[in-house]
């Protein structure tokens, strides 16, 4: 089930029940709701632990769609002093979460890519790589251990190779102002056989 499947299949009353269960000490970052990540039966999004809304979010909130309970996940400890933007992504195998962290430097933006190697364990956060480019760079999704799907300043959708430090233009023109990248896992499962997920 992808994020889009989840949003389109949840009835409005169920969505309202989820929001009613939301702890009052956290705040959904609604302007960035489209960057939520569905991993291990849990919808994850960036949030605030306390009502301190200056700066980037300070935790990852999750809602387990099976048990209907909220989960709180800590961010990596050493994000750096100039952290100004965070973006979530599923890991390459879609079994854990990854985090893109923008740090403003004197020369421009630097993006650090963090991966939670052991899902749910804060001590397993590892910085995988750092991306420094001389143009605006918006990471969207980890595609492989060495590639990041991203949008760059001249409205191009690109694959950034972390190891070779190369940008490959995917030749997609006319990017909308807002969009979302979602992955898939190939499967040989037959869609018309077996138990139905949604009646």
From TrEMBL:
Residues 34-161 form the F-box associated beta-propeller type domain. Signal peptide: none annotated. It holds the Pfam family FBA_1. It comes from the Eukaryota. This is F-box associated beta-propeller type 1 domain-containing protein. It comes from Sesamum alatum. The lineage of its organism: Eukaryota, Viridiplantae, Streptophyta, Embryophyta, Tracheophyta.
């Amino acid at each position: 089930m992808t994020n889009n499947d989840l949003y389109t299949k949840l009835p409005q009353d169920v969505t309202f029940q989820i929001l009613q269960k939301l702890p009052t000490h956290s705040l959904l970052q609604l302007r960035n709701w489209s960057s939520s990540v569905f991993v291990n039966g849990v919808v994850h999004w960036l949030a605030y632990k306390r009502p301190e809304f200056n700066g980037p979010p300070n935790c990852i909130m999750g809602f387990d769609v099976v048990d209907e309970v909220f989960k709180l996940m800590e961010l990596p400890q050493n994000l750096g002093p100039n952290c100004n933007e965070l973006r979530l992504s599923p890991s390459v195998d879609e079994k854990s979460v990854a985090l893109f962290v923008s740090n403003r430097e004197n020369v421009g933006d630097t993006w650090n890519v963090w991966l939670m190697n052991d899902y749910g364990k804060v001590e397993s956060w590892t910085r995988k790589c750092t991306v420094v480019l001389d143009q605006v760079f918006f990471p969207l999704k980890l595609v492989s251990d060495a590639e990041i799907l991203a949008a760059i300043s001249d409205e191009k959708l690109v694959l950034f190779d972390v190891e070779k430090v190369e940008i490959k233009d995917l030749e997609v023109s006319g990017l909308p102002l807002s969009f979302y990248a979602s992955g898939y896992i190939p499967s040989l499962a037959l869609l018309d056989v077996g138990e139905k997920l949604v009646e």
